[in-house]
């Protein structure tokens, strides 16, 4: 009985730290892929300039559709934790596809579709972080600011790291590094993130 406050504080610190690490790693996963994409399409896929532009346009459209679908789905189902793990898994598949495949249309329609799910892990993590802050009594705005700082740090470190991996080793190594980041995120979310039981049960009734 006397140990419960200590255990709760320890659990809270562990979960909060996990949120910070996941925010950084999801940022790294994105920062490893986006800055070098045009070079990857030109040098590895041998896409013409117009096709590179169309790829970015298609990526934006598919990303918006996937993001809207998942936002509505998460609000109805309630279990953001499982959704984030699912998004990380699809992010791993997307990175693996980009690492080994060089077919333009496969990358555009399959790779971008999968990577759009991977990218959505970050906003879903922020939504879950707000729920966590509200549940534990932490200032939600301040906690979100710390998380955004981690993402910003990732985008400072990620682009030069992406170029170093791609130019120094290969695009395969770069994309596999992003896949590893997604794997670590998925594992940490599964092990350390908590689920709001009321939201999850309400989501099950609506689902």
TrEMBL record:
Membrane topology of the entry: Multi-pass membrane protein
The UniProt record lists the keyword Transferase: no
Protein location: Cell membrane
Similarity field: Belongs to the major facilitator superfamily. Set transporter family.
Residue intervals passing through the bilayer: 12-32, 52-71, 83-100, 106-128, 140-157, 163-193
GO molecular function: carbohydrate:proton symporter activity
Boundaries of every Major facilitator superfamily (MFS) profile domain copy: 15-207
The gene coding this protein: setB_2
GO CC, one annotated term: plasma membrane
InterPro entries the record matches: MFS, MFS_dom, MFS_trans_sf
Keywords associated with the record: Cell membrane, Membrane, Sugar transport, Transmembrane, Transmembrane helix, Transport
Gene Ontology BP, a term: D-glucose transmembrane transport
Protein name, entry field: Sugar efflux transporter B
């Amino acid at each position: 009985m006397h140990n419960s406050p200590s255990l709760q504080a320890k659990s809270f610190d562990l979960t909060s730290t996990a949120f910070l690490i996941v925010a950084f790693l999801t940022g790294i996963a994105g920062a490893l892929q986006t800055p070098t994409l045009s070079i990857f399409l030109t040098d590895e896929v041998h896409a013409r300039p117009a096709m590179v532009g169309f790829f970015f346009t298609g990526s934006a459209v598919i990303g918006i559709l996937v993001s809207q679908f998942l936002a509505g789905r998460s609000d109805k189902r309630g279990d953001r934790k499982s959704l984030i793990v699912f998004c990380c898994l699809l992010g791993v598949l997307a990175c693996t596809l980009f690492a080994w495949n060089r077919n333009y249309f496969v990358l555009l329609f399959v790779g971008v579709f999968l990577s759009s799910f991977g990218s959505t892990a970050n906003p879903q993590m922020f939504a879950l972080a707000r729920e966590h802050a509200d549940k534990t009594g932490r200032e939600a705005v301040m906690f979100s600011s710390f998380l955004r700082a981690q993402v910003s740090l990732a985008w400072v470190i990620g682009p030069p790291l992406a170029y170093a991996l791609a130019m120094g080793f290969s695009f395969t190594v770069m994309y596999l590094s992003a896949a590893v980041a997604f794997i670590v995120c998925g594992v940490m979310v599964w092990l350390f993130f908590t689920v709001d039981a009321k939201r999850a049960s309400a989501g099950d009734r609506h689902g």
